[in-house]
């Protein structure tokens, strides 16, 4: 019983951290869109939190697998696969050289913004799942 409480606290804290990472990235992207920061600052700020976000998410996914919590694991497994694929291809970082042209900057910004927004939605769902994890018994 004590390990379930520890798992719940860890999952809840990790989900809140993942929401914080995504919110920070969304704020940085909106700052670029309104010309508050330049593309080099954007890439350095977002690249600083990408790897920790991947590590927290991957660790949480493995923890759900090892503790046989199937629903949260199945929720996070496709994202873990996608993040692993991005990391292996070295495409997980934002390249500031790509942002030199204004049109390319807005195209990449809208694509990245949509991806970060979907991550934010999944992490929000994970907060609800981790909140009700002990009640569901899964």
Pick out its properties.
mainly alpha, elongated, 0% strand, 138 residues
Instruction: Provide the succession of SSEs.
Output: HHHHH
Principal-axis shape equals elongated
Q: Nearest-angstrom radius of gyration?
A: 17 Å
Task: Give the strand tally.
Answer: 0
Termini gap: 14 Å
Q: Describe the largest sheet.
A: none
- Average pLDDT over all residues: 79
Low-confidence stretches: none
Quick description:
With 138 residues, the chain is an all-alpha fold. It has helices at 2-33, 39-66, 70-88, 102-131, 133-136. It is a multi-pass membrane protein.
How would you characterize the overall build of this protein?
With 138 residues, this protein is mainly α. The chain is elongated. α1 packs antiparallel against α2 (39-66), α1 (2-33) runs antiparallel to α4 (102-131) and α2 crosses α3 (70-88). It has a domain at 62-138. 82% of the residues lie in helices and 0% in strands. The longest helix is centred in the first third of the chain and has 32 residues, at 2-33. The mean pLDDT is 79. It is built from five helices and no strands. Pfam families: Cornichon. Its main location: membrane. It comes from Ensete ventricosum (Abyssinian banana). Belongs to the cornichon family. It is a multi-pass membrane protein.
């Amino acid at each position: 019983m004590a390990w379930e409480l520890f798992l719940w606290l860890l999952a809840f804290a990790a989900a809140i951290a993942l929401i914080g990472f995504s919110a920070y990235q969304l704020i940085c992207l909106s700052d670029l869109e309104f010309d508050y920061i330049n593309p080099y600052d954007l890439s350095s700020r977002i690249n600083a939190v990408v790897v920790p976000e991947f590590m927290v998410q991957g660790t949480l996914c493995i923890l759900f697998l090892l503790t046989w919590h199937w629903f949260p694991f199945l929720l996070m497994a496709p994202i873990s696969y996608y993040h692993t694929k991005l990391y292996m291809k070295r495409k997980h970082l934002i390249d500031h050289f790509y942002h030199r042209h204004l049109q390319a900057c807005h195209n990449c910004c809208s694509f990245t913004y949509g991806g970060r927004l979907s991550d934010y939605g999944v992490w929000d769902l994970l907060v609800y799942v981790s909140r009700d994890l002990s009640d569901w018994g899964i």
